[in-house]
Design brief:
FAD/NAD(P)-binding domain; four-stranded parallel β-sheet; three-stranded antiparallel β-sheet; 3 helices; 9 strands; globular
Length: 158
């Protein structure tokens, strides 16, 4: 399975799929996964997902094309100025949706954009001032601390 998008929802789904023993490849256009989080946390998370869940992660890349060929989906990418072709039976797209309004020059009519809508599998949610910006950070930091032994589960008497 190929997951396109390394934000909170994409990461949650790819880890879930990997833990169900699905081979997962993440394609993400930004230089780091979880780009809204602290760089150190993003780096630790990427390392953890690769080592613990055996997920292939490709960042700082561009998708050139996607097409269905018989039973496979072919995704052609550009990574470090080299083309690479990925093949998969299924693809999960978990990317932000951005309105194509760049050429409307809304700044000239005093319009300020105050929210961004993210979308996955047709489910939308507001991504600004509706929930804390770093809710994902709290979940991941807790998991990293617990797994590294820096946080103990008091219910088990550790």
């Amino acid at each position: 399975m190929i997951v396109i998008g390394g934000g909170p929802l994409g990461l949650e789904f790819l880890q879930m799929l990997a833990r169900f023993e699905t081979k997962v490849i993440l394609l993400h256009r930004s230089p780091t996964i979880a780009p809204r989080e602290e760089p150190e946390l993003s780096s630790l998370l990427e390392q953890y997902l690769q080592e613990s869940d055996n997920i292939e992660i490709y960042t700082d890349m561009k998708i050139l094309s996607a097409k269905k060929d018989k039973e496979e989906i072919l995704i052609k990418t550009l990574i470090n100025e080299n083309e690479k072709l990925f093949k998969s039976e299924k693809v999960l797209i978990a990317t932000d949706r951005r309105a194509n309004i760049k050429d409307l020059h809304l700044e000239h009519v005093n319009v300020k954009l105050g929210f961004k809508v993210s979308c996955i599998l047709g489910l939308s949610y507001l991504n600004h001032n509706v929930r804390p910006k770093s809710y994902f950070t709290l979940i991941i930091v807790f998991n990293l601390l617990y797994l590294s032994g820096l946080l103990w589960d008091t219910r088990r008497g550790d």
